[in-house]
Design brief:
single chain; 393 residues; mainly beta; 4-stranded antiparallel β-sheet
Amino acid sequence: MARQWSEGHSTSILCVGASLGPESLLASGSEGGEVTVWSQEGTIIGRLTLPGEEDSTSVVFSPAAPGHLYVSHGDTVSVLDPRNLKGPMEEFQGAGEEEINALALNETGSALAVADDSGAVRVLELPGGKVCRTLHRHTNICSSVAFRPHRPNNLVSAGLDMQVMLWGLQKTRPLWTLNLQDVAEDEGDHQQRPGQLFNPPLAHCVSVASCGNILGCAAEDGRVHLMRIGTGSKLEQQGAVKAHSQGASQAHFVSFLSHPYWLVTGGNDGQVALWDLSKHPVVAPDAKAKTRVTAAPRRKGKGKTKRKEQSQDNAKTPQKDEGEKEEAEVEGEAAAAAAVAAEDVTEEKSGPKLSISHGDKVNWLCPAVLKGEHCVVVADQSCSLTVYPLSQL
């Protein structure tokens, strides 16, 4: 059933993105600055190697302007025309303070969020690329960022400091911060299965459901941590799905299935899974259940530098500085929320609705509708993409 899309890259593919609409295109980026645009059938429409040949780490299509594709490479964001890949139409050099790991666009395509190795999140106004906000609270690499649907001024970030933060862009301090390690410690569960290593919950990928109130964060402990945002943008409840036997590298809510709470995940165990979270206690609070969750093995970097691997080691020891004193108010509120939430840390016991043994560590997942068929596109260590249909549902 799986289809291979080959010959688009000569190096390991790091990221995939899909544009909206029935005539949507896909784009993929790989090591060495390669960018490829694909049709829905998997035909190569264009290929380009970006100046500097730094890894293409994130690709996002504008929801407002179909002719704009944003690609991060090094500390730069290039704006490409996906149907005419002759070179950047525009470049936002120095968009990141250091190497950029992830990009996110708001629903109107008027703001671009950039997450980088320094831990900073920058918000750029579009068009033009002027930096209008710089958010400094992560103490390690910021690995992922996402805007909240229906709330254009709310942004979620996650990083290798094991922190998930919700931001209101009117301020430069987070509305709340959840430390995933604190949740695990409060839970008091450090049991290990035979042959498993204990890995800290370094946060790799954050996604927001289309309703705007449910967050999912794939972490190195093999879990996808779930959060529900209540009135006043407060953290209302937290839980988890034990999704993978090794680090969970990807988690994306799927917007085109029967409800907003379908989640597709991928991990370093080579598994791709589709979850129905509509009855999970975090999503449906009436269905509360308390179970124990265990942790799991080693992270694999996304073909990136040794510096990142070292910073992951650093992340195992939470970093403290004087800036934390300023955060006491926010941190205190989040700690209280985490303490309450820890009582309800839950695991999805029914298992995934669909489980695929992909066989290679997952670098990126992209849910997409291709020629009317519901699919997930998988990028791994190879130079090819794999397309799996979700037609079993």
